[in-house]
From TrEMBL:
Name of the protein: GH92 family glycosyl hydrolase
Organism: Brevundimonas staleyi
KW Hydrolase (keyword) present: yes
Domain Glycosyl hydrolase family: 288-750
The UniProt record lists the keyword Hydrolase: yes
PANTHER family to which the protein is assigned, alphabetical: PEPTIDE N-GLYCANASE PNGASE -RELATED, SECRETED PROTEIN
Domain Glycosyl hydrolase family 92 N-terminal: 29-281
GO-annotated molecular function: hydrolase activity
Cited InterPro entries: 6-hairpin_glycosidase_sf, GH-type_carb-bd, GH92_a_mannosidase_put, GH92_N, Glyco_hydro_92, PNGase
Length: 771
């Protein structure tokens, strides 16, 4: 519990009867949750949706070995290489780690990172683990090989380092433009360091990584005058992870270019801390300088820390959570993780770099880092409740703007810093746009949005879409992961139909309603699984429903997980399964499956197994709610308790799988409140069961929606009754409109299941075939 501070824990535990509140939601966040195990989060400083994520990098691994270091940080690593300005939060792939800065002492400059097993062999330093502290917007640690107290804070587009050097030590700062997360020789295509007469240092680098040709520009200023500097171009033999190579000293030049640049800045012996202020831009060095000057007064570290803390207090205060202490920490941390990305991408002047690698001007704040295959499910629906409407509109308009300048004319798939990675499947920007528009988020041009959605859904070269449009499914002998692509395309198509219906586009509605039923073309009634078909219409053989292999019939999963992915028409899926009892039996078989003898170690994203339910990866995330569609919501209540207790806790390994830019956290946040968006675009949330005594959603215009619970105990896992605004609620769903209007959803919990609540067919949530 050290990570959130003893005082905060004591406030939670001792403040009176019941489950007491901490005075400040920031104090309830443990930023170290997810930094061990498979969570892949980072502990450094970031503002809500900030462009800069300033965090320590503890290690990296080369091509195909970087999975566990996707955020640049592992909680148990013994050394810190330095502090870089861009990081992913919880992804299953690594990149970034731009503009690494590390403090140095002594008379000799250490140019290479060194070997983790050989202290002093390079610029990496061991650190005092007990000294490592962090909260939203702030991080500090005592380095020991380099005797420096390092502190970090951020604005939206800036990062501030404060280095307190040991008395009498010569103070240096090393800038290493070679460093990257997911590193391999040749990743840096070109870079530049430029020294300005006023002491400003600017530059850029272009990298070939997960996103090809990505450009990052920076501007840097120091609170103390530079008394000496040396620049090295180590391009002759690019060094990696401890291998020392000769460099060429170039300190008589004001601008240096190359593929392996470093600079060391000497400040002599200081009597006060050194503050380094850095801004980044995807546009140019002038944009980075303007970003640098857009925030904060000079080098006032504490002022900027206070501004960012206040921004986090405001962002986290959207929810007032009363729960037992560990749950409270987990939930506020989940909310924190959900508010890190998509991150601001445009400069302070509105310029941004698009997927065409050209600079554009926007009249709104452009965002990037869209992990859409993950986040369309719960992260973006959560943001429609907890983030300001303008922020949601900016995100949607960012997707549409990217489509307008895309060389392919389609919406982003998985993009960051404006560049496309083509990672994962589907065109899941479509449900994000539809969900926000159908919920009434203002500032979205519906016709323009729908046209962008249709463009993505009809781009025949993408992922077997041509065959999907012609045959009604993606054939596995022409396209890998065909079964998954078919069912995910069908759901995306359903959201296009709903958007078109709202806009009165009847022809589009009819066409995409038809395509929304294409999931049936993957259904094998004999095995009662979703399966991949060949172009001749036959199912591919042999068939093994538990097999997981990349490039096979399914995407990061198998038939057990993907056979439940029909969120737009769960009623038809229940019928195809053989009815209510058969559906419940199949769900139980998935959760209770004996995995003895199965080896999924080759599949990095397969984590958090409960039988064949895989909570650590997204295709399973709605499956526990499927019991509701079969008339047994009490079974959902059982499974949710099983999942929450086994997959989440408040330690560094407290996430069972990659947080995936907030999706794992958003699942927990929704589930703890008592409902979940099984079908984004339906404007319904399916009721599960609550895990808090009381959660208040603080809405605009002083409205509040309260979720209150009576009888919440460990052995009271079942809903006895539900009321909405004092009236009995017999249906198993609530609408977005009911939440944003304000009111109270009240649960009464008990030890025995109420088998009649929600069992009636009329009580079940939306399905397109039952409209």
């Amino acid at each position: 519990m050290r990570r959130i501070g003893l005082a905060a824990v004591m406030a939670v535990c001792l403040a009176g009867p019941g489950w007491a509140q901490v005075s400040d939601p920031v104090d309830a966040v443990d930023v170290f949750i997810g930094t061990a195990g498979k969570g892949h989060t980072f502990p450094g400083a970031v503002a809500p949706f900030g462009m800069v994520q300033l965090s320590p990098d503890t290690d990296y691994r080369y091509f195909r070995q970087s999975y566990d270091w996707a955020s640049g940080y592992r909680h148990d690593d013994p050394t810190i290489m330095g502090f870089s300005h861009t990081h992913f939060s919880g992804t299953g792939h690594s990149d970034l780690g731009d503009i690494l800065i590390t403090p140095q002492t002594g008379e000799t400059i250490r140019w290479d990172v060194g070997d983790v097993d050989q202290p002093g062999s390079g610029y990496r330093s061991r650190y005092d683990k007990a000294s490592e502290t962090a909260e939203p917007g702030y991080y500090s640690v005592q380095l020991t090989d380099t005797p420096v107290l390092a502190e970090l804070t951020t604005g939206v587009r800036t990062g501030l380092h404060r280095y307190t050097f040991a008395p009498g030590e010569r103070a240096r700062v090393l800038l290493d433009l070679r460093h990257s997360i997911y590193d391999y020789p040749g990743k840096v295509l070109w870079s530049r360091i430029r020294l300005h007469p006023d002491g400003t240092v600017t530059g850029f680098r272009q990298t070939r990584g997960w996103a090809p040709g990505r450009q990052v520009y920076f501007a840097m200023r120091f609170s103390q005058p530079i008394v000496g500097r040396e620049i090295q171009n180590r391009e002759t033999d690019i060094p990696y992870n401890g291998f020392r190579q000769p460099g060429r000293a170039l300190d008589d030049r004001q601008q240096v270019q190359g593929r392996a640049l470093e600079a060391a800045f000497d400040f002599g012996v200081l009597t006060e801390p050194l503050v380094v202020k850095v801004a980044i831009s995807s546009v140019d060095e002038a944009g980075a300088i303007a970003n640098l000057e857009s925030e904060g007064r000079g080098f006032d570290f504490d002022e900027q820390r206070g501004v960012t803390r206040a921004a986090w207090v405001d962002a986290l205060a959207v929810l007032d959570i009363q729960a037992e202490p560990e749950m409270k920490i987990s939930l506020y941390t989940a909310l924190y993780h959900a508010l890190i990305a998509p991150s601001v991408h445009s400069d302070a002047d509105g310029r941004w770099r698009g997927p065409d690698n050209q600079v554009h001007q926007a009249d709104f704040t452009v965002h990037s880092t869209f992990s859409l295959w993950d986040t369309f499910r719960a992260e973006h629906p959560l943001l429609t409740l907890v983030a300001p409407a303008q922020r949601n509109a900016d995100m949607v308009n960012s997707l549409i703007a990217a489509q307008q300048v895309s060389p392919y004319g389609i919406l982003p798939v998985w993009s960051f810093h404006g560049q496309e990675t083509w990672t994962m499947i589907g065109y899941h920007a479509v449900p994000v746009i539809a969900d926000a528009y159908l919920k009434g988020i203002p500032g979205i041009d519906g016709e323009r949005a729908l046209d962008a959605m249709i463009a993505s859904a009809t781009y025949r070269p993408y992922g077997g879409l041509g065959d999907y449009m012609d045959l009604g499914y993606v054939p596995i002998d022409r396209e890998p992961e065909a079964a998954s692509k078919t069912v995910e395309y069908a759901y995306d198509d359903w959201t296009i139909a709903r958007m078109a219906e709202r806009l009165g586009r009847r022809d589009v509605t009819a066409e995409f309603d038809r395509r929304a039923g294409f999931w049936k073309n993957t259904w094998d009634q004999e095995t009662r699984f979703v399966r991949a078909r060949l172009a001749d219409g036959s199912f591919r053989e042999p068939f093994d429903p538990v097999a997981i292999n990349y490039g096979s019939d399914y995407t990061e999963g198998n038939a057990w997980q993907y056979s439940w992915f029909v969120p737009q028409d769960m009623a038809s899926l229940v019928t195809a399964m053989g009815g209510d009892e058969a559906t419940v039996a199949k769900l139980d078989a998935m959760f209770d499956y004996d995995n003895t003898g199965l080896d999924y170690s080759h599949a990095e994203d397969i984590a958090g197994l409960i039988g064949q339910y895989i909570h650590g990866n997204e295709p399973s995330h709605h499956s526990a709610y499927a019991y509701v569609y079969a008339g047994q919501p009490w079974r959902t209540q059982e499974r949710l308790k099983q999942i929450v207790e086994s997959q989440y806790h408040s330690g560094p390994a407290g996430l069972a799988g990659n947080d995936d830019v907030g999706q794992m956290s958003a699942w927990l946040m929704f589930t703890a409140m008592g409902f979940y968006p099984v079908t984004p675009g339906s404007n319904q949330y399916v009721i599960g069961r609550p895990f808090t005594e009381r959660t208040t959603i603080n809405l605009p215009d002083d409205r509040r929606f309260v979720i209150s619970t009576a009888g919440l105990r460990d052995d009271h896992r079942y809903i006895q009754s539900v009321t909405l605004n004092g009236r009995p609620l017999e249906r198993t769903w609530i609408t977005h409109e009911e939440i944003v209007a304000g009111g109270e959803l009240h649960f009464v919990m008990g030890a025995e299941p109420n088998r009649t609540w929600g069992a009636d067919g009329a009580a079940r949530p939306y399905s397109m075939s039952a409209r």
